[in-house]
Write a structure and sequence with these properties.
9 helices, alpha/beta, WalJ/YycJ, hydrolase, Metallo-beta-lactamase, Chain A, seven-stranded mixed beta sheet
Length: 271
Amino acid sequence: MVQIKKEDNLQVSILASGSTGNSTYIETPDHKILIDAGLSGKKIEELMNSIGRTLKDVDSLFVTHEHTDHSKGVGVLARRYGLNVYANEGTWEAMGQRIGKIPGEQKHILPAGKVQSLGGMDVESFSVSHDAADPQFYEVHYHDRAFAIITDTGYVSDRVRGTISDADGYLFECNHDVEMLRMGGYPWPLKQRILSDTGHLSNEDGANGLIDVVGHRTKQIYLGHLSQENNVKALAHMTVQTMMQGRDLAVDHDFALLDTDPNYATPLTVI
């Protein structure tokens, strides 16, 4: 069995999560990566600085899909910092000219269902159901640790549950409260889109997805991608906590249930 030194850890910070922009920072001693860059380069650098890190240390960027709240800063970060950028062919095509020209040697194709190895870090991609060209999310593995990210999906399929089951940590979508969305000011077609199988997970959907995948290894759960118009942190947190406790899951005992923010990074935490 491989012995892991105290300093030889998988660490994570949710730099920003919400309908206005998303980015997650993950590091091991050998590699520092971002998953998504849905804010300006300046804002992402500020968020990195707030956790004692800098974009100069990042070597790779993995993109989930082309929507602006996940890809806004991809081009500028790739050019400014020489990052290797990974996405599938559909996402590269959909991002197109919106992200500007990126040197060919920095562009990498990572199809869904594949693993990209970076030293001891393995980044596994998996497809989700969302109204983007070819959306995929990622589970990062390092030694015996795993951190899975799943937002921007209308439902959690059996295949996805099998892929991310019993991870040590999760960033999991709780986009909206169904009643707030239905009673809110969005046009009906937009409400239908969000509620559809290619939309977003509600608080209840997120809770049910988590109930299906958490295991004995799970220690950290971040609730992410909350709508600023159709949700509030306290409601999302209470809904998930209540539903999980109703299934005899020991929230805040066996694992921590944590909130995220669209403007402030979570502390850099060992997973």
